[in-house]
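ARCHIVE CARD
CATEGORY: sequence design from structure
SOURCE FIELD: tokenized fold
FIELD CONTENT:
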């Protein structure tokens, strides 16, 4: 479970937590409440009391969830914090929401995107990705691109020759390319393509991982030996 970035902390969820707090502890003054929506790899939420302040971290999957769902979550978390039984209708309402088809799909997409990736080291048997990256960086990006994490995939995928995982800032190349039978030109081309994904960050649309804009494609054509490289990859 890692916390990647904070999306936002809105005042409305805070109002919900304050209201629920009053219901659970009508006699206590409301402590300051801080709420963060975080890019967790799973649907999850945490609460803690720290120096008199209630800190809540909620997965950004629940960002924009209906009010009654956030209210149910507030009941669950605050009950836990104050060691009280969780109201049954709150836990069932929250669970029902997580089971909704569209929410389930969002969660599984997020898990796929952000879950820890199994990636082998950059040094392969035929090619060293650190070295390939440096060469492509020097040639096409004036050496200005900061090196992301680089690694060979565990499996020899033919479908996905490479991909850039923005949430882990990692370029992964398919191990199928790590062979003396594959010309270096093709490896450099796949690396170049993935580096363009860093250069042209795109919004995720639905389940599509990479979106190639017109601008992206024009830039991609500037690769020396573009036709040769794509022909080699097709032949794989
Ligand atoms: Zn792509």
């Amino acid at each position: 479970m890692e916390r990647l970035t904070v999306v936002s902390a809105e005042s409305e969820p805070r109002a919900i937590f304050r209201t629920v707090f009053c219901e659970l502890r009508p006699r206590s003054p409301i402590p300051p409440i801080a709420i963060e929506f975080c890019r967790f790899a799973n649907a999850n939420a945490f609460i803690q009391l720290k120096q008199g302040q209630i800190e809540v971290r909620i997965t950004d999957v629940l960002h924009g969830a209906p009010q009654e769902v956030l209210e149910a979550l507030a009941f669950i978390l605050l009950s836990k914090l104050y060691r009280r039984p969780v109201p049954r209708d709150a836990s069932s309402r929250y669970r029902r929401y997580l089971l909704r088809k569209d929410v389930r799909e969002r969660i599984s997409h997020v898990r796929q995107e952000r879950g820890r990736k199994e990636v082998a080291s950059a040094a392969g048997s035929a090619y060293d990705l650190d070295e390939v990256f440096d060469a492509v960086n020097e040639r096409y990006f004036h050496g200005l691109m900061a090196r992301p994490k680089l690694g060979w995939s565990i499996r020899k995928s033919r479908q996905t020759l490479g991909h850039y995982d923005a949430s882990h800032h990692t370029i992964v190349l398919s191990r199928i390319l790590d062979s003396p039978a594959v010309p270096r030109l093709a490896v450099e081309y796949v690396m170049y393509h993935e580096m363009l994904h860093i250069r042209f960050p795109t919004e995720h649309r639905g389940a599509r991982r990479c979106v190639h804009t017109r601008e992206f494609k024009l830039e991609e054509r500037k690769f020396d030996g573009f036709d040769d490289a794509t022909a080699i990859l097709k032949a794989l």
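CARD ANNOTATION: Residues 193, 197, 210, 212 surround zinc ion (CB under 6 Å). Residues 184-199 form the longest helix (16 residues).
SHELF: design records, drawer C
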